[in-house]
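Reviewers of the previous submission asked for a worked example of the structure-prediction workflow described in the proposal, so we include one complete record here. The input consisted solely of the amino acid sequence. No template or homolog information was supplied to the procedure at any stage.
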Amino acid sequence: MHFPILIGVRRSRILDIQVGLILVLVSLVAWAFPGDQAVSAIIQILGIGLASLAWQQMKPKVCVLRLERSGELSVKRALSEDFSPAEILSGASVYPWLTVFRLRTDDQALITLTVTVDSMDAEDFRRLRLFLRWRGTSSDVTAPSDH
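From that input alone, the workflow returned the following structure tokens.
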């Protein structure tokens, strides 16, 4: 690998589709629920509101990750031109199709990144997973067992 590695992060279509499917399921359950139609309408409105909130929260707060040979990570936020150093916090989960990890930036902001296989190029996704496993200790990173 040639360092630094720059990885672009984009919105996950997989997560968008999951939120949409959950909204459809809530709508079907609300209208199939026997009882007052006002209750069904309230459930529908709450479902739409929660789906909208979830959809907005899934917008990536980081657009580019920079992985350094030293094990350091820098991030470029969505509205920023510059990279800022970030610390990888413990508790990362690394799976073949999903990676979730938390960062603390130099301005003490906490960022949780949920990255799926469609959030970046396949090779970049593999590199990020390897980087996180290499950086983490056995207590920092959880991965599925090979049983």
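The mean pLDDT is 87. We consider this example representative of the routine output the project will generate in years two and three.
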